[in-house]
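Today's session is about reading a structure prediction critically. Students often jump straight to the picture, but the first step is always the sequence itself: look for stretches that repeat, for charged clusters, for runs of hydrophobic residues. Only then move on to the predicted structure, which in these notes is written as discrete structure tokens rather than atom positions. Here is the chain we will use throughout the hour.
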Amino acid sequence: MNPRKSTDVPGSPNRTTRVLVRFMVSCSRCSSIVSTQPTQSKYDPKNKAAIWGSYGYDPKFDVVRAPMQIVKLQHSVDQFTIAFFDVTDKGGNLAMAWGTEAAIVPFTVAP
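Below is the predicted structure for this chain, in token form.
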């Protein structure tokens, strides 16, 4: 998904969706976060409202926050990978993997 693609998201500045998904591999309580916080296309340390990477992250912009389960992999993943698995018309799982660990969060599809 291109986080700067124009859409009709109510309350989003300039009618643009900005998505931040935070992922920490080695943590005891990991979460997947979808946020509408404005982003910077070029770093400006004076701009405290918009984020650059995860610098300046503010949870008040969170749309959804879902706890993720950390699992040890039987193999190593060289590149950070995001994948969907066990997907049906009702939902599935989202996984983010790197090294020998993956974080997994189940999701359901709204009717």
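Discussion point for the tutorial: The beta strands are 30-35, 62-88, 91-108.
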